[in-house]
UniProtKB/TrEMBL annotation, chain A:
Protein's name according to its UniProt entry: phosphoenolpyruvate--glycerone phosphotransferase
A Pfam match: Dak2
One GO CC term on file: cytosol
Enzyme class: transferase
Organism: Liquorilactobacillus satsumensis DSM 16230 = JCM 12392
GO terms assigned for molecular function: glycerone kinase activity; phosphoenolpyruvate-glycerone phosphotransferase activity
GO biological process, one term: glycerol catabolic process
Enzyme nomenclature, EC number: 2.7.1.121
Subunit: Homodimer. The dihydroxyacetone kinase complex is composed of a homodimer of DhaM, a homodimer of DhaK and the subunit DhaL.
Role summary: ADP-binding subunit of the dihydroxyacetone kinase, which is responsible for the phosphoenolpyruvate (PEP)-dependent phosphorylation of dihydroxyacetone. DhaL-ADP is converted to DhaL-ATP via a phosphoryl group transfer from DhaM and transmits it to dihydroxyacetone binds to DhaK.
Automatic annotation (TrEMBL), chain B:
Biological processes per GO annotation: glycerol catabolic process; phosphoenolpyruvate-dependent sugar phosphotransferase system
A Pfam family matched in the record: EIIA-man
Gene Ontology CC: membrane
Keywords, alphabetical: Transferase
Function noted in UniProt: Component of the dihydroxyacetone kinase complex, which is responsible for the phosphoenolpyruvate (PEP)-dependent phosphorylation of dihydroxyacetone. DhaM serves as the phosphoryl donor. Is phosphorylated by phosphoenolpyruvate in an EI- and HPr-dependent reaction, and a phosphorelay system on histidine residues finally leads to phosphoryl transfer to DhaL and dihydroxyacetone.
Provenance organism: Liquorilactobacillus satsumensis DSM 16230 = JCM 12392
Lineage: Bacteria, Bacillati, Bacillota, Bacilli, Lactobacillales
Subunit relationships: Homodimer. The dihydroxyacetone kinase complex is composed of a homodimer of DhaM, a homodimer of DhaK and the subunit DhaL.
SUPFAM superfamilies: PTS system fructose IIA component-like
Residue ranges of domain PTS EIIA type-4 in the record: 4-124
Swiss-Prot/TrEMBL catalytic activity: dihydroxyacetone + phosphoenolpyruvate = dihydroxyacetone phosphate + pyruvate
E.C. designation(s): 2.7.1.121
Database matches in PROSITE patterns: PTS_EIIA_TYPE_4
GO molecular function: phosphoenolpyruvate-glycerone phosphotransferase activity
Protein name: phosphoenolpyruvate--glycerone phosphotransferase
Amino acid sequence: MLTVELTKKWMELFYAQIDQEKAYLSELDTPIGDGDHGNNMKRGVDGVKDSLAKLKDPTLKETLRTIAMALISKVGGASGPLYGTAFLEMAKKCDESQEPAILFAAALEGIKKRGGAKEGDKTMVDVWAPTVKALTDGSFGTEQIKQAVASTKEMIARKGRASYLGERSVGHLDPGAMSSGYLFETFIAAGGVK
Amino acid sequence: MTKKIGIVIVSHVPEIAAGIPRLLEQVAADVALTFAGGTDAGEVGTSATKIVTAFEQNEAAELLAFYDLGSAKMNLELAIEMSDKKVHLYDTALLEGAYTAATLLQADVPLTEIEKQLAPLKIK
Ligand SMILES: Nc1ncnc2c1ncn2[C@@H]1O[C@H](COP(=O)(O)OP(=O)(O)O)[C@@H](O)[C@H]1O
Ligand SMILES: [Mg+2]
């Protein structure tokens, strides 16, 4: 069950992870992008931290919406509207269910709609899609997430900046897949799934 | 007199977003042109909030929007969801698409005809 408490803890851990891996994320974005993914995400989580701190007794919906708006307005790169849409869709869904599998599935649909990427296009979708599936069949976990991130290495990019490189994108991990991996790993670390 | 339909330019770079309207003005003196370039901090990127502002600053109630790269499109779509204006989004080459639309709007060509001329310029 996703709660306000859990979401806050999750965002704290995600913040710490992004802060720690900022240089690495930008490094991943260098051969197949414009080298800014770490900086983009750092701006995003800074915004999330600031705006969550301003909330007083928020509902889960307000909390998720606030995260979404911070990411939309602060990130700057493609990952901003994508992560923003993901949290916006969770906010829309959370009255109906607080089940992670259901919320993340709604988020995934939002990401796919916003960016038009399918599985195998070498984007964050390649972490979100198998992870949503794993949440349903019980195989969700750190190992499963790491595998999903690693699977992007051999893919040919078909969406986003890396797609301009075509086959030359093979052999590199997708930066957005890696940051999505952090998002799910910190969800586990926050106690999101027992 | 200002035309009923305006144009909005969205680019990752503030100077590109500001520069294209300068070129369009030459052929479309009566078309309302606004733009959004860069992030809120003025860095390279796009911002849905800046795009909403560009929609609102545009005198026209109906807008044709042109953008440079894929992530600008995502923020444009988010901005469209946040705004009350009627916005049409085109996947054409940014400069050629916007220039074509500006020229035709100035000549009072109807939108359906404009869209026919934009179709072959679609590249994304
Ligand atoms: N259309 C898309 N659909 C899904 N994910 C995408 C898309 N475009 C880009 N991404 C994700 O965003 C990441 C890049 O984010 P970032 O570097 O912050 O933005 P930008 O590419 O604008 O510089 C990619 O690694 C990829 O995972
Ligand atoms: Mg980038």
